[in-house]
Amino acid sequence: MRYVIVVACLSISLSGFAQEEPNLDHLMRKKFLHCHDISLNCQEMIPRYLALGQFDSIRIVLQYWGNRCPSNPERLVTEVLFRIGAGEFDDHDYEDLLHALLAYKFHAVEADNDHHSYTYPSDDYSRYTEILRTYREFLRNYARETKAGTKPNSLESMLCDFYDHEFTPLLEALKANAFPETYLQRSFVKERERLMDLYDRHWAGFFEYWIPRGKATTLGNHPGIGMTFGFRKKTFSVDFTGLARFGKASNAYSIYQKDSLYTTRDFSGVYAGAEAAKAFFRTRRSELAASGGIGYESITAVPADEAKGIEAVDVGTFNLSAGLGYRYYYSEIGAYVGIQARYNVIDYFAKGGTDLSGHALTLRLFWGTSGNPYRYNALKRLGY
């Protein structure tokens, strides 16, 4: 009986223990200071030391914070503002300051718009949110106070404005090359040149109207549809073009091939080639460009019919062309509509058949896009 009572009591005790959430905090003796924890503690100490005027303590905290968390954005902002206030700021000490500023701007705008933490995307990020938001507000106030001790329109003054979310003055000054002796200005120019040197990707669909000249007028005018794609660098571009033309010929014509003479009004044409262009006039929305091209085109007079054992009968020619085109860019990302006129040097030599010699004019209407989304977004962050 005594054994049964002991077992019952033990079962009740274990059952109660199992129902409670275990707390083993007192057993967690080994700890690793994560950068998040270090940053949060530093963010708590610096405003207190600043209010007490304990600047040496701030230096020690910033040095420790920098050694343990060198990529933390709040640490860099704090250090720059502290050194500006102490008259010790030199932008040559911060080789990556430009990218840090652009990241600060991007995340600050994102945080203002989305109202959530962006620095520490962990599962329990909510515990950091309020502390981070408070510290970032402290940094904005710190920037305003620090600006009071700077020279108007100086780099230090504009950095304070930037950290107070007034981004435009600094970016406009850098665009105007206002600080030519600074590392930040040289970094800005170098980054802008790097972005401008990137290739654009281009593609477009188009409608064409083919107008033969000379004796090729026997074939009559024909509509066509095509596509072009390629690459562009600054004002020079190279595109690969393919198209198909269709419709009946205006008059019957003959082609001598395979020891036979074929007379028909059937017409289907194809063209494939490469075209290079150079823009010689550009504004923000408009562009004029001259182009030249080389390709091959052919006309199918008799289509193949496997059921009847008929092979296709066609005639082809090399195509050398030159053209002039206009584009209107209706969006910031490079979408455009355009028109182009081309003169095509061709020679449909049909030995023993109808003389189809002569060149051709073509008119094309385009809808396409030419741009680099990465460059567009990066330039936008630079203030362009």
Would you spell out the secondary-structure blueprint of this structure?
Blueprint (H helix, E strand, L loop, with lengths): L1 H18 L15 H18 L2 H14 L4 H13 L11 H18 L11 H22 L7 H9 L4 H8 L7 H14 L3 E13 L9 E12 L2 E10 L7 E5 L2 E5 L3 E15 L3 E17 L10 E17 L5 E11 L14 E12 L1 H9 L3
Antiparallel strand pairs: 1-2, 1-10, 2-3, 3-6, 4-5, 6-7, 7-8, 8-9, 9-10
Helix pairs in contact: 2-3, 2-6, 4-6, 6-7
Question: Could you characterize the architecture of this molecule?
Answer:
The chain is α+β, with helices and mostly antiparallel strands. Helices cover 37% and strands 30% of the residues. The strands form two sheets. The protein has an eight-stranded antiparallel β-barrel. α2 packs antiparallel against α3, α4 runs parallel beside α6 and α6 (126-147) runs antiparallel to α7. The chain is elongated, with a radius of gyration of 36 Å.
